[in-house]
Amino acid sequence: MGGILLPLSCLAVAGNAAGQTADPAPGMDEIVVTAEKRATNLQDTPIAVSVLTGDDVTRSGISGMAGLNDRVPNLDIAGDVSTPNATRVTLRGIGAQNVTLNGEAGVAFHQDGIYYARPQGVNASFFDIERVEVLRGPQGTLYGRNATGGTVNIIGKRPRMNEFGGEATLSYGNYDAFVGGLAVNVPILTDIMAMRASLFRDRHDGYARNVAGNNLPNLDDADDLSMRLQLLIEPSDRLSLLLRGNYFKRGGVGSASKLIADAAVLPDGAPNPGAGDRNPDYVMVPGTGFGRIPKAGNYDLGYYQRNGLIPISNDPWEVAYDFPSRIGNTQKTVSAELNWDAGPANLTVLGAIIEDSIFQHYDSDYTNVAAGTKYFRGKTRERTLEVRLASPSGSRLYWVAGAYYFDEENRPTGGPLSDNFGGLQILNIHYPPLENLVGPGVTLPPEFSGPIVVGQRIDNASLALFGQMTYPLTDALNITGGLRWNRDRKFARRTNYNNFAIPAAALTNDSNRATFEKVTWKLGLDWKVAPDAMVYGSVSTGFKPGGISFTAVDKPYGAETITAYEVGAKTEWLDRRLQLNLSAFYYDYSGLQVSQLMPDLVGFIIVNAARAQVKGLELEWQARITPQFRLSGSAAYLDATFEDYADAPYDPYLATSLTSQTVDLSGARMPNAARFTATGGFDHKLEFANGGTITSTARLSYQGAMYLQQYTAAHYRRAPYAKLDVLLTYGAPGGAWSITGFVNNLTNSKVLKAIESMGTNLGNGLAARYAAPRTYGVRASLSF
């Protein structure tokens, strides 16, 4: 590491000695955001907002949500152990543990103002973008649905009138990584019509080596293709229509979940309290969701591990899958945005249709023992429409009012059951003979006699009316108030079938409906105490509707609500060379939705924890030391705890009985909420006489220890880690092209991102996912 850091530090010193510092250092660049559904200066926006510009994203090589993980205070982005390639987002301790089709996010995701409910296509948006805005804290008034933790907004580059040009990037790195992007802007009719087309390709071999043999593929790969086409029509300077079409396709093997059950040592080096057998009468069947199977002799998972039949290693990027897993997801979006300056008010109409097709067939036991695979194929369709009126630009009194509609439907995708069961999604769970684990001569219950087929259907509909107004009490003091009425209706059906060869023999056919209604509000003050300093405070509420768990359709879970108190300051000092933004917050959370593996149920269920409290501090800063040298960073403290959670289900990994067991988690830390996080970095540009430049960049990030489940036990604890990324870029004179060498995770930190019990009644199994190892390569960029 020192061999790389030394040249970078030498470049910084050389630049300071090159005579460039005689010129006065400019202030910070002004960043315009649309966090309040209007264009405002970031430093004049009374919300805790983190922004990455499109140049930041391109220069850093960020191609998905995971790239934001070390750039935003109190943000944690992880995958999911049992749902390949899903994305789990937690902000200030608030997120969602259920990332399946019947789950709801705790942090809303928007692309160009359009809400996306499903996590599968999140990474499709990180190319040809103007900026990324991350709004921290509940955004219940203007954004509404599932924005209790905050909102991630991706704003793409729009077509530009009367201008032909574009950008292209191409990179190659280890793991045979290829990333390429192309964007072209084409004028069609002078001052009236323009088009922009974008293409992005991201692929690499798997980070996780598969040691099961038989030329089985490595896992945790990438094989993504994204395309976007936009047409902007402006018949006058008061009217515009923007049409968009987005396409995203994901293929490859999929993510890797590593089995660490029964190992003597946990991933962070601590002893494993769950190692070994705890109930001699039952066997754990990995990946099947069943734990009530009588054990015959020593034919359990521990037996296989202890006798070397299942490879166990401490290498986080080594797995043993006996099945060639595959995924195939597509997402298609068409949208239209109409903006009309009607004089007394501005009208915006934004509508979209989103279709997701999901295919997953993977090794669900995460071992080289043929215990189980899972096959899932489904399709969802989302429709959104937002209509809003806003005060005209430049108006002293700002107001916005509107209506929002969202619905989501599931449709069949073919197969032997689709004609018989209409709108049911088909989830096929295939299990080979379980004698592989329980031993010969064991009589199994009828439900284990063959593959299980589960039909699922989920329909959601949401309606909201909202309004917000900012009134100037004085030239420097503003008051803001807002209201939003929300109503969500949900329907779910689950049908279980015993054997794929006998589709008419339904074991169960359960359905349920639920309705959730809530009014959320916001009240805030902001005061411009000086031209370069603003302080603000707010009280706001948020709402996430309840739902229906497929594992217990008869037991819908309730909504979760939040009341948030926040104060902050946005300041600039030393002729705007130094920027300091601070925020402090306190949340009162009720009905927190958590995912539990119930001892008396097969599988996971969503339940409502009684109450939780979240409080914290955040600091973001940047300093322009010279025109060529910039420092930036952030620091955050977070205290997120369950205030009252007395009857939580017992940790399934340590359960020793088939009867219900409970534990008091009151006072325990909430999952995915590190107490301390910090980042720091520099950008230094060395300029040459011919106009060429060399820019060196380094960014160090630190995340403190956290628990990845609601149980504060050693086997769910992620140890603190630090990660260093470095870049060195040569820019051609005039800025037409550049070449960058990069190393991400230079320290090769082993970062545990997700861990969970294996979905059995007796626990006895843990599976984990890890972040990417060290990656490096070369990237070329061209502007034309």
SSE map:
Blueprint: H1 2-16, E1 32-33, E2 40-41, E3 49-53, H2 54-60, E4 75-78, E5 88-91, E6 107-111, E7 114-116, E8 129-136, E9 150-156, E10 165-173, E11 177-189, E12 193-204, E13 209-210, E14 222-236, E15 239-250, E16 258-259, E17 282-283, E18 293-294, H3 301-306, E19 318-319, E20 326-327, E21 329-341, E22 346-363, E23 373-390, E24 398-411, H4 418-421, E25 425-430, H5 435-438, E26 452-472, E27 477-497, E28 506-530, E29 533-544, E30 560-573, E31 578-597, E32 604-626, E33 629-644, E34 648-649, E35 662-663, E36 676-687, E37 693-703, E38 706-707, E39 717-718, E40 721-731, E41 737-744, E42 752-757, E43 766-770, E44 775-783
What does it look like?
The chain is mostly beta strands. Helices cover 5% and strands 52% of the residues. It has five helices and 44 strands. The protein has a 24-stranded antiparallel sheet that branches. Strands 3-8-9-6-7 form a five-stranded mixed sheet. A three-stranded antiparallel sheet has the order 16-43-42, with no helix packed on it. A hairpin with a 2-residue loop joins strand 28 (506-530) and strand 29 (533-544). The model is unreliable at 1-25, 262-307, 412-451, 498-506 and 759-763 (pLDDT under 50).
